[in-house]
Design brief:
heterodimer, A: 232 residues, mainly alpha, 9 helices, elongated, B: mainly alpha, 66% helix, globular
Chain lengths: 232, 348
C-alpha cells in the first residue's frame, strides 16, 4: 500500500490515504500484521519439517530456523530482550551442540523409521495433552482476573524490557531465580561427575612444566666432523 | 532521508525503500573496505617478513584484491559429487550474510546508525554467535574428512570464546548502564579525566585486552586459526570450495574481522569519539575517528598474525576455559562491587 497515494482508501475508514490524519498508525499495523504472519508461517512450516525430514542434520537446521522466526515473533511483541536471548542461548549455543552431536552420531535411518510406529500412539497422546494445556491456559487467561488494560501492556511500554524483567526477577522472584541457578549448577556438576573418568595410559599436557622448559635443557650444540654422525 | 521517502511513497513503503538504501550504504563500502583490508593485510604481513607483498596490479599493487576477485569470479564452481548440495551452497551464504548483519547497529557518528536499538550489544552477541553455523554446515556438507574435523574444531572453539566475550561485555554494560551502543559511546566521553574510552580506565583495561584476544579467537584469525590450519587440515572447512562460494567465505571472514575491530573501538576506545576530549578534535567527523581506530586494531590483528605461532588445540581450550573465563568472572564481580560502592552507594 502507499504507492498510489491519494486514490487508495484506508481499509478501516472512509478517508482516502492522502487525507488520513493517522496514517502512521494504520500503516504500521499493516506491516506488523504482515511480518507476524510471515514469521508465524515459517515457524509452523519449519517446525513441521523438523519432525518430517529424514536426515537428522536437516531436522536440527529446520529447528534452528524455527527458533529464529520465534525470535522474530517476540520482536513484534516488543520483547526484544527475550528475542535476543532466544537467539544467543538457543540458536547460538544449544543448537550448535545439537548439531555437533547429531553430526557425530551414526544414525541408522531404517531403525528410526521402524520405531516410528511403536511411538506414534504415545506421541499423539503427548500432542493432545499439550494442545489441551494450551487451550486451558488461554481460556484461564481470558477468564481470570487480569484486566484488559494490563493484558495489552502489562508494564509501562516506555520501560525497556530488560529493566522491567530485571526489576521483577531480582525483587519478587529473587529466591526462585537463585534456585533456578542452583538447579543448573547441580545439573552441570552432575554431568561432569557422570562423564568424567580417569583412564590409564593418558599422557596429559602439563603447561607449567612446558613453560618452565628452557632452550638450554632441550637443545645441545653439536659440531660433528664431516662424514661423522651424531650420537643422541 | 527516511522522512523524505515516506513523504513521497507513504509510511510503510517509504520506510522500506529508505532502509534498503541505508543498508546498501553500509554494505557496499564495507565490501570495498574488505577488499582494501585484504590488501593491507598482505602488505603488513609481507613487510614483517621483509617481502614486498602485492605490487604488480595497479599503483603499489592497490588493485590486487580486485584482480583476485575477478579471477575467482571467472572460475568454475565445483560441487563435490558426494556433498550435500543445498547445504554446501548455503554455508558460504550464511557466513557472508552474518558477517554483514551485525553492522546494522554499529554507530558511525552521532546520528549515523542504521538501527539504534536498545539491545544493540545483545544483537551483536547474537549475530556473532551465529557465525559458527557457516563453518559447521560447510564442514558437514562437504562430506570430506578434513572439513569435518575443521567443523568440529570450530564449533568447540567459537562456543568457548563466546563465554568469555559475554562476561567482558557484561562489565562494559555494567559500567555504561545500557545495551545501546550509542549510549555506551556517550558514557565513554571524558571517562578518565579528559580521555574518551573505557579502555583508559584501569578497571576495564584488562577486559579490553581479553576482548581483543577473544575477538581473534572468535574470528578464527591466527594464532587461533585451527579451523583452517593448513599443516593439519589442508584448508579446513574451505577445502572443497571453489570460485564464488570460496570468495564468499573469504569476504565473510574479513568482514567479521573488521566487525571485531569496530567493536573493540566502540566498546573500549570511544567509537566515533576522538581519543581526547578536546574541542578542536571534534572538528574531524566521527566516522574518520572510527575508521582510524578500526585500522589500528586491524594492524594489531595483522601484526599478531605475522608474529605469533599457531596455538595447539589444548592450549586454545586452556586459555579460553581455564584462564579467560575465571578471570573475566572474577572481574565482573570486582567491577560490579566497585560500581555498587561508588555509584549506587551500597556502603552508605
Amino acid at each position: 500500500m502507499g504507492a498510489g497515494l491519494g486514490r487508495e482508501h484506508c481499509r478501516r475508514c472512509a478517508l482516502p490515504l492522502s487525507r488520513q490524519p493517522n496514517l502512521k498508525g494504520h500503516d504500521r499495523n499493516v506491516i506488523q500484521t504482515f511480518t507476524f504472519y510471515l514469521f508465524a508461517t515459517i515457524v509452523i512450516a519449519s517446525g513441521a519439517l523438523t519432525i518430517l525430514s529424514r536426515n537428522p542434520v536437516h531436522s536440527v537446521l529446520w529447528l534452528i530456523l524455527a527458533f529464529f522466526n520465534a525470535a522474530g515473533l517476540m520482536l513484534i511483541l516488543g520483547a526484544e530482550f527475550i528475542a535476543m536471548l532466544l537467539v544467543i542461548v538457543y540458536v547460538g549455543a544449544v543448537a550448535v551442540l545439537f548439531l555437533f552431536v547429531v553430526m557425530m552420531l551414526d544414525v541408522d535411518f531404517a531403525e528410526m523409521r521402524a520405531g516410528f510406529a511403536r511411538y506414534a500412539g504415545f506421541g499423539a497422546l503427548m500432542a493432545v495433552v499439550l494442545l489441551a494445556e494450551m487451550i486451558f491456559a488461554v481460556a484461564a487467561w481470558n477468564a481470570g482476573g487480569v484486566s484488559v488494560a494490563s493484558k495489552a501492556a502489562p508494564v509501562d511500554p516506555s520501560v525497556p524490557n530488560i529493566e522491567a524483567l530485571g526489576t521483577v526477577l531480582f525483587t519478587r522472584y529473587l529466591y526462585i531465580f537463585e534456585a533456578a541457578g542452583l538447579v543448573l549448577l547441580v545439573a552441570m556438576i552432575g554431568a561432569i561427575v557422570l562423564t568424567h573418568r580417569t583412564r590409564s595410559g593418558l599422557r596429559p599436557q602439563n603447561p607449567s612444566e612446558q613453560n618452565r622448559r628452557r632452550p638450554e635443557e632441550a637443545t645441545r650444540n653439536m659440531n660433528p666432523g664431516i662424514g661423522q654422525g651424531v650420537e643422541l | 532521508m527516511t522522512e523524505w521517502f515516506q513523504g513521497q511513497l507513504g509510511y510503510g513503503f517509504g520506510w522500506f525503500v529508505s532502509t534498503l538504501i541505508l543498508i546498501l550504504m553500509i554494505a557496499l563500502p564495507l565490501m570495498l573496505a574488505v577488499a582494501m583490508i585484504i590488501y593491507a593485510d598482505r602488505k603488513i604481513w609481507a613487510a614483517m617478513a621483509l617481502r614486498r607483498g602485492p605490487n604488480v596490479v595497479g599503483p603499489f599493487g592497490l588493485l590486487q584484491s580486485f584482480a583476485d576477485g575477478l579471477k575467482v569470479f571467472l572460475k568454475e564452481t565445483i560441487i563435490p559429487s558426494s556433498a550435500n548440495r543445498g547445504l554446501f551452497l548455503l554455508a558460504p551464504i550464511i557466513t557472508f550474510t552474518i558477517a554483514l548483519i551485525a553492522w546494522a547497529v554499529i554507530p558511525f557518528g552521532p546520528d549515523m546508525v542504521l538501527a539504534d536499538i536498545n539491545v544493540g550489544l545483545l544483537y551483536i552477541l547474537a549475530a556473532s554467535s551465529l557465525g559458527v553455523y557457516g563453518v559447521i554446515i560447510a564442514g558437514w556438507a562437504s562430506n570430506s574428512k578434513y572439513p569435518f574435523y575443521s567443523a568440529l574444531r570450530a564449533a568447540a572453539q567459537m562456543v568457548s570464546y563466546e563465554v568469555s566475550i559475554g562476561f567482558v561485555l557484561i562489565t562494559v554494560i555494567l559500567w555504561a548502564g545500557t545495551f545501546n551502543l550509542q549510549g555506551i559511546i556517550a558514557m565513554q566521553k571524558s571517562h578518565v579525566f579528559f580521555l574518551n574510552g573505557f579502555g583508559f580506565n584501569p578497571l576495564l583495561f584488562p577486559m579490553a585486552v581479553i576482548f581483543l584476544i577473544s575477538a581473534m579467537a572468535e574470528t578464527a584469525r591466527a594464532p587461533f586459526d585451527l579451523t583452517e590450519a593448513e599443516s593439519e587440515l589442508v584448508a579446513g572447512y574451505q577445502t572443497e570450495y571453489s570460485s564464488m562460494s570460496f570468495a564468499l567465505f573469504w569476504l565473510g571472514e574479513y568482514g567479521n574481522v573488521l566487525l571485531m575491530c569496530a567493536l573493540n573501538a566502540t566498546l573500549f576506545w570511544g567509537g566515533w569519539l576522538p581519543p581526547i576530549d578536546w574541542a578542536p578534535l571534534y572538528v574531524v567527523p566521527g566516522i574518520i575517528w572510527l575508521f582510524a581506530k578500526i585500522f589500528i586494531f586491524f594492524f594489531i590483528f595483522s601484526w599478531v598474525k605475522a608474529t605469533v605461532p599457531r596455538f595447539r588445540y589444548d592450549q586454545l581450550m586452556r586459555l579460553g576455559w581455564k584462564i579467560f573465563l575465571p578471570f573475566a568472572l572474577l572481574w565482573v564481580a570486582i567491577v560490579s562491587g566497585y560500581l555498587m560502592i561508588t555509584r549506587y552507594g551500597a556502603l552508605a
